[in-house]
Amino acid sequence: ELGSGDSFTWAELKLSRVHFTHLNDKSRAGDFSLRVADPQLFSQPAKVPVQAVSMQPPRVVTLAPLTLDSPRLLATITKSVLHIEDLDNPADVFIMVLEPPRHGRLTRLHGDRGLSRFKLEELSQEQIQYVHDVSEGTEDSLVLQVNDGHSYQNVLLQIHITHKSQDSPHLVT
Fold first, then answer.
1. Alpha helices, DSSP H only, in the chain?
2. What's the whole-number average pLDDT of the chain?
3. What is the annotated signal peptide range for this record (predicted)?
4. Which of 23, 79, 92, 143 could share a disulfide with 99, CB 3.0–4.6 Å?
5. Are 145 and 95 in contact (CB under 8 A)?
6. DSSP letter string over 43-108?
7. DSSP state of 42
């Protein structure tokens, strides 16, 4: 591991013995300075910009239908329904609604406005919900695109709506 003031030789560089390793807990953009020297002369320091690029695409770990029991009009998208991981840069992952549901919309848990995109963090914290429009349909679906800025994956989320009669018995506690 090299630090400020450390050196390496041209031969070590040519033999691929010098590597730059990005640590996940560090900023993905930055720079470092290099200076070339021989026994008599040395150059001015030159800044080398660094931009860490995602090497692993986001991965869908769990994808199951979202079940909604009507007359209840909403259901939270939990990890048991849709769980997505991104091991190298989860903060950069956005999920876009490519094809919205026909019988409802996605909203944040404590919001009413329909969403066209949201962060992976919001999905992981189970802050996204499907709100049904009370139509008689029993099936709905939407297409989401998971994107980390370098790769993407489309996901079809199916929604099953079961209509229960208002007159049916229900448990009151």
1. 10-14, 120-124
2. 89
3. none
4. 143
5. yes
6. PPPEEEEEE----S--EEEEE-PEEEEETS-EEE--TTTEEEE-SS-GGG-EEEEEE--SSEEEEE
7. B
Helices (H) and strands (E) in the chain, counts: 2, 12
Determine the Cα angle at 59 with ends 57 and 65, to 5°. 145
Cβ neighbourhood burial of 136 (10 Å; 0-12, 13-18, 19+): exposed
- Model-level pTM? 0.71
Rounded distance between C-alpha atoms, residue 144 and residue 141, angstroms: 10
Per the CB < 8 A criterion, the answer to whether 61 and 85 are in contact is yes
**Tens-digit pLDDT profile for residues 22-61:** 777 777 788 888 999 988 998 999 999 988 777 789 999 9
Look up residue 148 and give its two tokens. Answer: 């980390």
Joined together, the tokens standing for residue 125 give 């914290």
